[in-house]
Amino acid sequence: MATTIQKTWTEFKTLVINNKRLKFQERDKTGYYDLWADEGTETTYMCEIEKGTADATDYENNYQSDANQVPSSNVDVNNEITIINEPRYRPRFWKSQTEVELSNSSDITIANININGKLDGISINFTRDDVEFVLEIDGTELMRIELSDLEDNNVYNLNSTGTDECIFPVKTTRAGRQIVINFGSNPVDVTSNITVKAKKTVNPTTNFVAGMIVYREKVTS
């Protein structure tokens, strides 16, 4: 399992750049610099530097010119060379606690994330279990589930009697009001966008109340 480690600028430059001598990448964002470096295929070090600070001045004057060199190989702590050929991904999170009232006549969009990467997991909480949950990937409906049809805290096995099991990675908690999807070792490939929608199936007021989407964004040079 890959590990992501967040560092301050002082920690990042000392450990990652000076000691481990890893190649590091930079994205120039609004208000800050976004840095990261891969150690082999298992560990990624991350750092954010706020612009206009002493840390930013130190970075700009002494280290920025070394950013975004092609990481054809990285040297680990034992001075062993690891060749990195796989696409690299940065972990990302969408979260919201802004309530959205659902309709019983059409799907209401809860989240729309424009990315090229992989979807790892979703957790969405409603005020009732009388809800149709909808997941669209790249404009195509991948999943439509009515929460009340699922037993609480049960991950569904589509072939429990066979030797080749197919696990449906969905369960509900909180008396059926929260849907949790964990794609585990089989993340969903995304090329343009992730869209989560919902529709209530009864007349009483039903709201989305909180949610998190865990995904990875493909790193492009």
Describe this structure in words.
The protein is mostly beta strands and 221 residues long. Helix content is 9%, strand content 49%. It folds into 2 domains: 3-86; 90-218, Protein of unknown function DUF2961 (Jelly Rolls, Sandwich), CATH 2.60.120. The protein is built from 2 helices and 19 strands. The strands form 5 sheets. Strands 7, 8, 10, 15, 16, 17 and 19 form a 7-stranded antiparallel β-sheet that branches. Strands 1-4-3-2 form a 4-stranded mixed β-sheet, covered by helices on one side. A 4-stranded antiparallel β-sheet has the order 9-18-11-12, with no helix packed on it. Mean pLDDT is 82; it is low at 72-85 and 158-165.
Number of domains: 2
Low-pLDDT windows of residues = 72-85, 158-165
CATH class of the largest domain: Mainly Beta
Helix content: under 10%
Distance from N terminus to C terminus (CA atoms, Å) equals 24 Å
Total of DSSP H or I helical runs spanning 4+ residues:
2
CATH architectural name of the largest domain: Sandwich
Number of strands: 19
The CATH superfamily label of the largest domain reads Protein of unknown function DUF2961
Helix-and-strand structural type? mainly beta
β-strand percent reads over 45%
Q: What is the CA-atom radius of gyration, in angstroms?
A: 21 Å
Average residue-wise pLDDT: 82
**How can the largest sheet be summarized?**
7 strands, antiparallel
Order of helices and strands: EHEEEHEEEEEEEEEEEEEEE
